[in-house]
């Protein structure tokens, strides 16, 4: 017997549907049209309820933080190198975007806290086991240097110092762009955790697309080549890595095939593809470049929202926990030749 | 607070200098946590009691601080219960400190639509008058055949299974003296 | 600090004999304590839930007021799961099996009485032989007219539904199935490798000198990272105060030499508290005893120090698969893969930096 | 037991751990079933068929503990020739009067026994003057009084009190009319197949139980039976217990460790409120209330109700000591120890009779103390109608319970049967102190008195009952002071001068317990009821509690930790009588006083010291040797031999056959519940021919085997709540655990009635209709009864309109029919219909219920 076998246990199957209180949904009971993601494989569960707790991270705070962090990460590099290669509009755009992204990201990060007044408690410790702690120690100096650089850029004061701090921010930037992948994968959320090899690449691509996209929006046609290159490369990487991730996830990838995550990811892919094509074809025109940049940024942001939503859905699906773990047990037993399957499983 | 003290209490400093580099335990313990103690440790008194719910008669320890019950839990000494309590017994603290508990006299006059306040002594006096009146109205000296009854059917009482033996005793004694035979409790329900 | 991180792989996963010392407590710290919850003697009374709330002043559960006093329909479980305001959760599983598959723990025959002899072996003298207790097939009365049958839902006009004669009795008893009612009091596992603790960016979550994992409410800033990092779905953030909350194994009571409130209240000693090594020995003995009695479905969960979380400080004797109780069958602490994640992220960061640089390759076009 | 007494259940789990077999026989699969070795589902109300089947199994297989049976029971007694069994009378015993609906038990008597005065339950026959009374009402009242004597709430004095002479015996148990053979014949039709048909369990399940209990009874092993109101809430309830008593006596499981028939009582001191009875028919210590017809003076009272032999032979000392405790110096030998101060009974004044009188405005005032009848009692409408027709009502509670607010928000307000403005009842709600705010004793379910100490002061106007009744009494006495009216003498002469303490002048509870314990002439606390005298030199407010203040020490406050004592734990609290933990424990030793086995040694005769000794305090005269044979004409306990272990009985024997004391037959017989979906398959007589009814418009009864009310329902408690909810529905931590009223139905019934899990269902009886959430569960099983399928519906009864967790009261669905012995209602089984959806609101509900009644052919209902 399995709980998924509705024919055998009609009333329990009904409980499965009704009793779940998935996070992120207002209504207490799921409607008929919003069935649990019960996979093909049979599995048992406790009334179909989630086994792990879905993140309590706020939406849109956290996806936006991820997006802004990515944006800032690559923008800082574009700003620094734009300055070094005499691309003033790219420099300016990059520096301001890095600072704004870092500042905005920090605001969202603090707002996401359920006790925001205690943000500074983050600075009590440095814990390498905690991506959020590490991230805090990445974001804090980055934001500081990026802000200083932007201040210099805006005021025109302390240019040399501004350049130096911009360079430091640019060096830190990539870490800011990829650590967020660890933030997600270092959880028990199956769809996130099992993507821990691909997710940094997806997020790096997304960061590149966002930063590059921003560059396309802000920089002049004269200055926007690196931005376009970065954006297109980012979009391609993001699309490819994302596709690879979804496939490799197998059963766990089903959250990208349905529901809101599916919609978001489809929109993201469309934006990225359109933006990339636009950037290649329309870079030379200010408006088309800007539009392409916006599309790329939107694509990047939508990826973050999509991945976020996929994680929520994955956490709420007990099959995501039970089926892979059962499979792991089965495989281990197959290899070790031991059968410790409890005798009651056969007829239970 | 001196800088050294401040620094010494900064967990990150303790991480770096102490035995807990990953900041998992001793380094990150807060002063408040360090000072944490049991709520019952500072009780003025631990009073021996018995659970008021079912008839198993589980032993309870009632912890009192400043004249208030701060915790009730099982009495491990009790050979009946060995310190254990069921969910109801475990909710005893809530029972005795319930915010919805009524602690003043409420009065509803005949045909009234709302509760009114009433002084306890006045209430007792009014009830005494009503008892005397109902006793008189329901009095029977003899039955039709002249057999002695010396009783009243004017009023009755229900309850006792949740009360103390001493309380039941006073109820029964008083009602018998009043000639009121209609005394009943949950034991017949 | 990095050395400890990268060098001591055992402090992220795998067996770890003394997580307390690993967390920086000096060698003379108390022995690691925990819970052994023997669900084979659990009667589902929920004293643990109430005793826990009374002691820890945990509020009534429920995410909003309308939720508080509603049935869930999950047997007698109206708590649902562990959470910020439910640090103990008693699961109720109504399990139905084909008749005859029962074992001793499942309402089977009293020990020493073979089922076969009960069914056919004994007959009081002078009685005709009986081989089956089932009486003759019930007489079915006229079935109810389907057209007049009420539809499910909140019908108010019940006058129209006055029963026709013989409206009942059409359903036959189902003698072919046995019922088993499993109950289990779930709690925070106080993992050897605690995901919640390791991901906490503030140090609010920490390992105590007793080897338990506790949230310091004065530190927690409600970042919520611990919530999805728990492979068991234990810890959660409470909406009203924004803090993360879970079982403390009554940290405040331990210091005073008291056992945790739930274990103390538990009427049948299903929840046992003590030094972890002693509990493990007791659990092994109990398992052997049950297996000896033919309760072959008994198994320990969270007992094995080689498991994905390095063994639990609170472990269980279960009578079915863990997932039936709402627990993951084989959880692995997420931080086991953290070194690889950091490597991947670092490499990707380098790649990202390189990509930014490469974007400027070739100068102006 | 795991459901309603979880902490007590730890001892069952301990026993299981040591290898005991746990069997749970219950219509529902409960938390107890979940950990039992065997759950036997069966039909509510079929218990006597089941118990009778076990008795038949024991007797037909010769599995009884023969030496125990011949030593300690009346198995060898010869039943008189006049007795006709149900076997030969279509399910009715001899002596039944169809016109009056009651039994004349004279034909049930044993051969060779002369009766010089009537025993309880037989007075109708023996009182010529009473027999001449022909008015129906009076006869009925008398019968009710006699029946009350046999109450399981009472059951002490008066049970066949006055048999003299020895019955003829056949120690070989072969005489066709000896009790053993009579019993065997009576139960011969209770075959495993019959049990299976009536109860709905399989033959295999039944035999499994039969085998388990017989294999686990005897010298080396014992079996215990545990019951609660699942056995008492029936129209044949007293006979259920009798059935278990017969079985346990046959198996030698009474008076022995690990044996017994254990009543699990449901309230902290419900045992105490029976011992010191707030019950109309008893005086403290199970002394019957004086009856106007029988008791003109103390002597006639003792003649009628005190036994000549056995310990009830000392009832004169108990009674005089009680009268001295109450009226002190005003009770003198000259005035018959103030016996005439006592009011007299003439009939049933049980709670349902009282409520009937309230509705008829025959009684005016009502104190409701720590009870919530509007929710907790059967037929809630009847209860609330009673409340609404009072002049005044005093409710003492901690929370605003439904009984106090019926005039405002009761169900009858919603249906517009009553209007608040029309209800004349004056209501006083007085807050009361809780268990931590007063000192006193509870008596638990094992007769153990435990003293609680006051921890804090009660808040606001909250006071203890001790305070309230003491000061109410004082006030009334003040108001009547100087009265010359004879009727006020008992009140003014009453000993009512307890010392007080504190600003609220709280009576000192120890002083009350001291009075209950009793004093000698010098004012020293007595140590044993054997010290009581009938000459006025001693006092005792409740003779069975004498000894609780032995040596001037509050024995109930003893708290020597269990870990520092043996398993009997005799130094924790104090158990009545005389701190004995197991009653009739003389039976734990054989005729010679040797333990039946080493394993089961409990109390035994120490030949060297020439006294009884053991783990417990022997429930026997300490120095009476096993060889003691009474002289002819001996009285009181001296008339009992050294093997007469059942010392409260006139013959010292455990009764397999009860020649007196019960209003509905000498042996338990299976009758269907009044509301049953099936015909009685064992006897022609459908239901208890002697049961009691209240035939009123507000108490309509569903016809038996009605197609309109086709389903059985039963009411019960959940672990998470307490009775009518006053102590649980108002607490968040408990309410959230069982937040809504629900009904439990099987998947088959759900399919039959289109009930949806978690949806609403409406349940309908001839009384009313209520709504509940539906829990569809495999734990409820349809049963085959004969050729029918019977569906059972489970209804926890905790809910009402007040508190945090609310719902319709399940008890509103019940009608009231009563057991004739104890006037307890049949609330553990009744019939109803169930339909999906919510019930009609307002006056439509009344129409709806009336339409059902019409369809079922029930007389119209109403409020009068």
TrEMBL record, chain A:
The species is Actinomycetospora chibensis
Note the superkingdom of the native organism: Bacteria
Q: Which PANTHER family match?
A: PROTEIN NRFD (PTHR34856)
Give the record's family classification: Belongs to the NrfD family.
Q: Where is the composition biased (Basic and acidic residues)?
A: 9-21
> Matching Pfam families, A to Z?
NrfD
Gene3D superfamilies, per the entry: Formate dehydrogenase/DMSO reductase domain (1.20.1630.10)
Q: What is this protein called?
A: NrfD/PsrC family molybdoenzyme membrane anchor subunit
UniProtKB/TrEMBL annotation, chain C:
Alphabetical keyword list:
4Fe-4S, Iron, Iron-sulfur, Membrane, Metal-binding, Repeat, Transmembrane, Transmembrane helix
Cite the 4Fe-4S ferredoxin-type domain residue spans from the record. 33-62, 179-210, 211-240
UniProt xrefs under PROSITE patterns: 4FE4S_FER_1 (PS00198), 4FE4S_FER_2 (PS51379)
**Where does it live in the cell?**
Cell envelope
Q: Give the principal location in a single coarse category.
A: other
Q: Where is the composition biased (Low complexity)?
A: 137-150
Q: Which residues cross the membrane?
A: 341-361
Query: What residue spans carry the region label Disordered?
Result: 1-27, 127-150
InterPro entries (alphabetical):
4Fe4S_Fe-S-bd, 4Fe4S_Fe_S_CS, FDH_Electron_Transfer_Unit
Q: What is this protein called?
A: 4Fe-4S dicluster domain-containing protein
Source species, please?
Actinomycetospora chibensis
């Amino acid at each position: 017997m399995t709980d998924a076998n509705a024919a055998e246990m009609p009333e329990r199957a009904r409980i499965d549907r009704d009793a779940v209180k998935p996070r992120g949904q207002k209504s207490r009971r799921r409607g008929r049209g919003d069935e649990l993601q019960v996979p093909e494989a049979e599995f048992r569960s406790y009334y179909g309820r989630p086994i792990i707790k879905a993140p309590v991270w706020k939406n849109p705070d956290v996806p936006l933080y991820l997006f802004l962090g990515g944006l800032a990460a690559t923008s800082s590099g574009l700003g620094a190198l734009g300055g070094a290669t005499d691309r003033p509009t790219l420099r300016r755009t990059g520096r301001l975007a890095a600072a704004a992204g870092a500042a905005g990201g920090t605001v969202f990060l603090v707002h996401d806290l359920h006790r925001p007044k205690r943000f500074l408690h983050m600075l009590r410790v440095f814990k390498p086991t905690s991506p959020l702690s590490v991230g805090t120690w990445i974001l804090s100096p980055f934001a500081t240097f990026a802000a200083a650089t932007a201040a210099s850029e805006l005021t025109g004061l302390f240019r040399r110092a501004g350049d130096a701090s911009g360079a430091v921010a640019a060096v830190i930037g990539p870490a800011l762009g990829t650590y967020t992948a660890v933030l997600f994968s270092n959880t028990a959320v199956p769809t996130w955790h099992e993507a821990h090899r691909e997710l940094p690449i997806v997020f790096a691509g997304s960061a590149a697309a966002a930063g590059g996209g921003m560059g396309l929006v802000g920089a002049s046609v004269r200055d926007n080549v690196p931005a376009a290159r970065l954006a297109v490369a980012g979009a391609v990487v993001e699309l490819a890595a994302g596709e690879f991730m979804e496939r490799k996830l197998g059963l766990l990838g089903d959250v990208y095939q349905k529901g809101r995550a599916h919609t978001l990811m489809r929109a993201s892919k469309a934006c990225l593809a359109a933006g990339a094509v636009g950037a290649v074809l329309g870079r030379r025109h200010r408006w088309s470049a800007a539009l392409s940049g916006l599309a790329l940024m939107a694509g990047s942001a939508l990826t973050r929202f999509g991945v976020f939503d996929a994680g929520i859905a994955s956490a709420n699906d007990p099959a995501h926990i039970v089926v892979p773990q059962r499979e792991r047990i089965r495989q281990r037993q197959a290899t070790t030749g031991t059968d410790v399957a409890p005798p009651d499983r056969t007829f239970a | 607070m001196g800088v050294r003290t401040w620094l010494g209490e900064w967990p990150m400093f303790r991480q770096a200098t102490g035995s807990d580099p990953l900041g998992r335990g001793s380094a990150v313990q807060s002063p408040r946590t360090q000072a944490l103690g049991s709520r019952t440790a500072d009780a003025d008194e631990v009073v021996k009691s018995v659970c008021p719910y079912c008839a198993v008669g589980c032993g309870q320890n009632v912890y009192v601080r400043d004249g208030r019950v701060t915790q009730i839990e099982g009495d491990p000494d009790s050979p009946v219960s060995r310190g254990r309590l069921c969910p109801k017994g475990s909710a005893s603290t809530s029972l005795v400190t319930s915010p919805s508990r009524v602690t003043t006299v409420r009065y509803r006059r005949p045909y009234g639509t709302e509760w009114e306040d009433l002084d306890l002594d006045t209430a007792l006096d009014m009830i005494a008058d009503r008892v005397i009146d109902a006793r008189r109205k329901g009095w029977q000296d003899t039955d039709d055949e002249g057999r002695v009854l010396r009783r009243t059917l004017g009023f009755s009482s229900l309850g006792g299974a949740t009360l103390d033996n001493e309380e039941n005793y006073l109820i029964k004694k008083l009602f018998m003296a009043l000639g009121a035979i209609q005394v009943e409790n949950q034991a017949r329900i | 600090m990095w050395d400890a991180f990268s060098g001591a792989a055992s402090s992220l996963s795998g067996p770890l004999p003394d997580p307390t010392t690993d967390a920086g407590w000096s060698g003379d710290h108390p022995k690691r304590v925990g819970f052994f919850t023997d669900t084979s003697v659990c009667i589902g009374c929920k004293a643990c839930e109430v005793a826990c709330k009374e002691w820890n002043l945990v509020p009534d559960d429920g995410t909003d007021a309308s939720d508080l006093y509603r049935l869930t329909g999950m047997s007698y479980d109206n708590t649902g799961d562990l959470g910020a305001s439910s640090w103990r959760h008693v699961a109720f599983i109504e399990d139905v099996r084909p008749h005859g598959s029962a074992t001793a723990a499942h309402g089977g025959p009293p020990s020493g009485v073979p089922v076969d002899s009960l069914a056919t072996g004994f007959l009081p003298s002078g009685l005709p032989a009986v081989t089956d207790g089932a009486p003759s097939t019930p007489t079915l009365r006229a079935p109810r007219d389907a057209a007049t049958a009420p539809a499910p839902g909140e019908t108010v006009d019940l006058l129209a539904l006055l029963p026709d004669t013989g409206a009942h009795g059409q359903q036959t008893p189902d003698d072919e199935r046995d019922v088993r009612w499993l109950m289990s009091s779930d709690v925070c596992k106080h993992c050897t490798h605690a995901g919640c603790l390791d991901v906490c960016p503030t140090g609010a979550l920490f390992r105590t000198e007793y080897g338990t994992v506790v949230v310091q409410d004065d530190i927690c800033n409600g970042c919520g990272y611990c919530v999805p990092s728990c492979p068991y779905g234990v810890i959660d953030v409470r909406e009203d105060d924004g803090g993360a909350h879970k079982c403390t194994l009554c940290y405040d009571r331990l210091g005073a030499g008291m056992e945790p409130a739930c274990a103390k209240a538990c009427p049948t000693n299903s929840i046992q508290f003590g030094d972890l090594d002693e509990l493990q020995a007791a659990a092994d003995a109990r398992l052997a005893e049950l297996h000896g009695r033919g309760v072959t479905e008994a198994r320990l969960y969270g007992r094995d120090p080689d498991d994905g979380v390095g063994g639990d400080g609170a472990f269980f004797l279960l009578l079915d698969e863990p997932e039936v109780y709402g627990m993951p069958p084989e959880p692995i602490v997420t931080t086991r893969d953290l070194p690889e994640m950091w490597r991947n992220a670092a490499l990707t960061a380098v790649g990202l930096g390189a990509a930014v640089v490469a974007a400027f390759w070739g100068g102006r076009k | 037991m795991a459901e309603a007494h979880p902490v007590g259940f730890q001892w069952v789990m301990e026993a299981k751990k040591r290898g005991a077999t746990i069997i749970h026989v219950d219509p529902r699969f409960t938390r107890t079933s979940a950990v039992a070795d065997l759950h036997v589902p069966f039909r509510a109300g079929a218990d006597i068929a089941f118990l009778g089947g076990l008795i038949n199994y024991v007797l037909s297989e010769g599995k009884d503990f023969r030496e125990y049976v011949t030593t300690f029971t009346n198995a060898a007694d010869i039943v008189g020739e006049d007795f006709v069994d149900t076997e030969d009378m279509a399910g009715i015993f001899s002596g039944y009067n169809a016109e009056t609906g009651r039994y004349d038990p004279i034909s049930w008597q044993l051969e060779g026994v002369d009766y010089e005065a009537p025993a309880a339950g037989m007075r109708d026959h023996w009182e010529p003057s009473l027999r001449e009374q022909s008015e129906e009402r009076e006869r009925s009242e008398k019968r009710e009084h006699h029946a009350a004597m046999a109450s399981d709430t009472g059951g002490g004095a008066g049970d066949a009190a006055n048999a003299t002479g020895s019955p003829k015996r056949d120690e070989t148990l072969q005489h066709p009319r000896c009790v053993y053979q009579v019993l065997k014949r009576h139960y011969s039709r209770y075959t495993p197949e019959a049990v299976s048909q009536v109860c709905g369990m399989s033959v295999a399940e039944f035999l499994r139980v039969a085998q388990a209990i017989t294999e686990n009874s005897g010298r080396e092993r014992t079996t215990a039976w545990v019951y609660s109101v699942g056995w008492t809430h029936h129209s044949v309830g007293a006979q259920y217990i009798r059935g278990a008593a017969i079985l346990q006596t046959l198996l030698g499981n009474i008076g022995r460790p690990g044996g017994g028939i254990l009543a699990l009582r449901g309230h902290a001191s419900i045992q105490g409120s029976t011992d010191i009875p707030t019950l109309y028919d008893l005086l403290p210590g199970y002394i019957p209330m004086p009856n106007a017809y029988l008791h003109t003076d103390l002597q006639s009272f003792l003649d009628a109700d005190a036994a000549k032999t056995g310990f009830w032979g000392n009832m004169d000392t108990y009674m005089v000591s009680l009268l001295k405790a109450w009226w002190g110096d005003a009770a003198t030998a000259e005035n018959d120890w103030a016996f005439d101060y006592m009011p007299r009974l003439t009939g049933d004044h049980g709670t349902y009779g009282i409520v009937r009188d309230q509705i008829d405005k025959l009684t005016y005032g009502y104190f409701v103390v720590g009870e919530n009848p509007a929710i907790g009692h059967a037929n809630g409408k009847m209860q609330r109608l009673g409340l609404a027709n009072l002049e005044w009502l005093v409710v003492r509670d901690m929370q605003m319970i439904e009984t106090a607010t019926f005039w405002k928000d009761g169900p009858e307000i919603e249906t517009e049967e009553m209007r608040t403005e029309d209800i004349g009842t004056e209501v006083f709600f007085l807050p009361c102190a809780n268990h931590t705010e007063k000192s006193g004793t509870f008596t638990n379910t094992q007769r153990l008195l435990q003293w609680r100490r006051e921890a804090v002061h009660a808040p606001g106007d909250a006071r203890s009952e001790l305070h309230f009744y003491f000061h109410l009494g004082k006030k009334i006495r003040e108001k009547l002071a100087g009265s010359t009216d004879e009727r006020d003498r008992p009140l003014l002469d009453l000993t009512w001068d307890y010392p007080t303490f504190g600003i609220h002048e709280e009576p000192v509870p120890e002083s009350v317990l001291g009075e209950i314990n009793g004093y000698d002439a010098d004012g020293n606390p007595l140590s044993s009821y054997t010290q009581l005298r009938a000459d006025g030199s001693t006092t005792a407010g409740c003779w069975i509690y004498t000894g609780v203040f032995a040596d001037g020490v509050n024995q109930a406050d003893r708290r020597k930790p269990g870990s520092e004592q043996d398993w009997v734990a005799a130094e924790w609290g104090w158990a009545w009588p005389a701190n004995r933990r197991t009653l009739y424990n003389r039976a734990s030793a054989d005729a010679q006083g040797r333990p039946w086995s080493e394993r089961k040694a409990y109390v035994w005769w120490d030949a060297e010291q020439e006294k009884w000794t053991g783990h417990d305090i022997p429930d026997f005269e300490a120095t009476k040797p096993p060889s003691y044979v009474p002289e002819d004409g001996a009285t009181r306990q001296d008339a009992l031999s050294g093997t007469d272990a059942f010392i409260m009985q006139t013959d010292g024997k455990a009764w397999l056959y009860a020649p007196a004391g019960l209003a509905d037959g000498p042996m338990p017989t299976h009758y269907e519940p009044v509301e049953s979906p099936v015909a009685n398959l064992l006897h022609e007589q459908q239901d208890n021919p002697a049961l009691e009814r209240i035939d009123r418009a507000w108490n309509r009864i569903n016809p038996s085997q009605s197609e309109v009310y086709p389903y059985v329902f039963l009411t019960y408690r959940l672990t998470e709540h307490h009775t009518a909810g006053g102590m649980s529905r108002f607490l968040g931590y408990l309410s959230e655990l069982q937040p809504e009223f629900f009904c439990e139905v099987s998947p088959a019934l759900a399919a039959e009635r289109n009930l949806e899990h978690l949806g609403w269902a409406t349940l309908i009886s001839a009384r009313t209709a209520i709504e509940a959430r539906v829990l569809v569960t495999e734990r409820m099983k349809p049963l085959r009864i004969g050729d029918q399928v019977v569906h059972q519906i489970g209804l926890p009864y905790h809910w009402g309109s007040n508190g945090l967790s609310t719902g319709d009261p399940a008890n509103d669905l019940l009608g009231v029919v009563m057991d004739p012995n104890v006037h307890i209602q049949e609330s553990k089984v009744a019939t109803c219909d169930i339909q999906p959806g919510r019930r009609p609101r307002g006056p439509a509900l009344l129409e709806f219920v009336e339409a059902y009644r019409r369809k079922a052919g029930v007389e119209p209902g109403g409020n009068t």
